[in-house]
Structures are given as structure tokens and as C-alpha cells.
Amino acid sequence: MEQFDLQKIIRENILKLVPYSSARSEFKADAQVFLDANENSMASAWNEYSRYPDPLQMKLKERISELKGIDTKNIFLGNGSDEPIDLLIRATCRPEVDNIIAISPSYGMYKVAADINDVKVKEVLLDDAYQPIVANVLEAADTNSKLLFLCSPNNPTGNSIEPAIIEELANSFEGIVIIDEAYIDFADISSSWINKIADYPNVVVLQTFSKAWGLAALRMGMAFASEDIIAILNKIKAPYNISLPAQQLALAALQDTVVVANAVNVIKAQREQLINSLLQYSFVQKVHPSDANFILTEVNDANALYKYLLTRKIVVRNRTNVPLCGNCLRITVGTPEENQFLLQALNEYTA
Fold it and tell me: Which fold has domain 6-250?
């Protein structure tokens, strides 16, 4: 792409900001006695957690670097992916002045984070195949459009955005392009943009521990971007945004790559079985293609089926009020036993 000037995208007050300097960020070497951070090292049996954690989570980033093949300076860790989403909006968008572009339908937190920060959202509808129309996206942008959010595979539609479309938008949009890859591990052909960061200084890639790694309760997300963008995120984040227990658990989980890969393969196999089974029901109008760990299914009456499943103590996501998702239920691919329980309930619904 043409020369990208991050200085023109980041808010002036953020560029001038002197970040809070925590005790653990000022002193990073080894010492025998730490008397700099006003910690209580005699509090309880949980003495391991009496000290503040590494504010930049370097041990964890080093392991992620090994797995992803990307330098630690290009990695940001947040409290879920929602934290970097919020930080990017705060870093770039002046309230009541600037705006973000988001495809629709897509992940709802882009709009929520913008609304919290009093930033306008311009939503651009996908086409009938749930793909962005490049011309429409670029037409929606103006001189105050700072961020473009693309979710691929997309939530709630489940499909991946065609690589050529992402590339064209990354080359044409004049702000920062955020590619949310929360579900990328479930795509049959991985098309992650992580390895393109060096060629696209205007791109931020989001991933998460919540999906393939099965650690939703841990609340940890990853952002991959140029060193300059990562430096901005580190500048404005909370000093100790990732707790020590979360860092330890994530680091332990990253040793089980074979276990995670096997689980992903089971989910993908179950996804195909579930799709084939759903297509057999007369009340199912369409099952949309999925590269994620869920299936968007169009039925005759989504509200009625949703309420029926609740009586069977099965909870799915009713997306019928979401644009382009009329009468659609989003069904997560569960364990083989959970999927069979769902299908049995659907058999009885048909009867």
C-alpha cells in the first residue's frame, strides 16, 4: 500500500500523552528486595500473588511469538479482544467528531465500544453472500473515518471474507483496518493476516483465547500490528491489564497445542455433521456456510423454535432481528453429546 502515516490517525492528545509509569515498568532487572511498589508481601498464604505482574506479559508473549512466528514487539495482550477494540477507538477517534466503519451484520462490540466513546458508527450492509461490497465501504468513509472493522470469519454469519476483498480494503482505506480473526482456527483454509503485518502498517489483527483455545473465562485477547501501533496500545492501556493468574494459565495452555488442534478437528467434523443433519428438517430453509465454530441457520419461525428449545433447556442465539438474518438462529457447535441432545429435541419439534 501507499505510505501510511500513523501520526495523522492517532489523536493529538494521545501522541502528547505521558503514560503512567508503574513500578514494574520502571525497574525490570532482578533484585533481592523489592520496596518500590507498596505491595504487601505478608498478607496471606497467597504470597505468590502479592506482587504486581509483568505489565507487558513478556514470558507469555515470547511463547505466542514462537507459535505465531511474529516478533514480541508486534503483540499486544488485552482483557479479551474487547480491550484492544476499545483502546483503538479511544486512541484514534475524537468524540462527536470522528467515526468508524463496520460491516453489518457483524460482532456487536464494535458499535458498543464506539457508542461508549461517543463516536459515530457507519454500518455498511454485506451483500447476499455476506461479503463486503468494497465500493460501498469506501463510499461510506470520509476524512474523519479512522477505523474499519472486518470480522473474518464473521460473526454471526460464519463465513470468511474473501481475501481479495480484505486486501483491496487494506490498500484503499485511509485509516486503520482491524481484522478480527477470533474464529480463524476453525476455517478450513487459514488465511490469517498476521504474517502480512510487515507489509501493511495500517492493519491490526485480533485473535483470542476464548474460541479454539477453549479459555473464554480467562478473558484474554491478542492484537498483532506494527510496532508503532502496539506502542500506542501499551501507552494507553491500564498499567497491569492482565493478571498474573491469567498469564500463568494462558502460558500453561499454550503448551497443549496438540490437544487444542485435536479439539478443533473434532469441532470442524461435528460442524459438518450438524450441517448435514439440520438440512434434513423441513422447517430449515437454509444453512449458511461456516468457517467458524457455529452455524447460522434460517428456519420457518426463529422465534417459535427458539422458545421451544428453551423449554428443552437448550439455549441458542436468536439473530432474527439482526440485519440480513431474518428468521435465523446461530447455533454453536457443541460436544458430540450436546449436538445429539439438540438433534433429538429437533426431531421431537418436527413430530
Answer: Aspartate Aminotransferase; domain 2 (3.40.640)
Using CB atoms within 10 Å of the CB of residue 107, give its burial: 0 to 12 exposed, 13 to 18 middle, 19+ buried.
buried
Take residue 321 and report the three cell numbers written for it: 432481528
Is 258-350 CATH 3.20.20.70?
no
DSSP state of 43: S
**Residue 120: helix, strand or coil by DSSP?**
strand
Find out whether 260 and 212 touch, Cβ atoms under 8 Å: yes
pLDDT in tens, 29-49: 777 777 777 778 776 667 778
Q: Which of 224, 254, 240 lies closest to 73, judged by CA?
A: 224
pTM of the model: 0.94
Parse the chain into domains and list their residue ranges: 6-250, 258-350
How far is 141 from 137, CA to CA, in rounded Å? 7
pLDDT bucket at 2, cuts 50 / 70 / 90:
low
Backbone angles phi, psi at 148, to 5 degrees: -125, 120
Here the cell at position 190 is 487459514
Distances (CA, A) of 11 to 8, 56, 97, 147, 231: 8, 23, 11, 13, 14
Over residues 289-342, the pLDDT tens digits come to 999 999 999 999 999 999 999 999 999 999 999 999 999 999 999 999 999 999
Amino acid at residue number 235: K
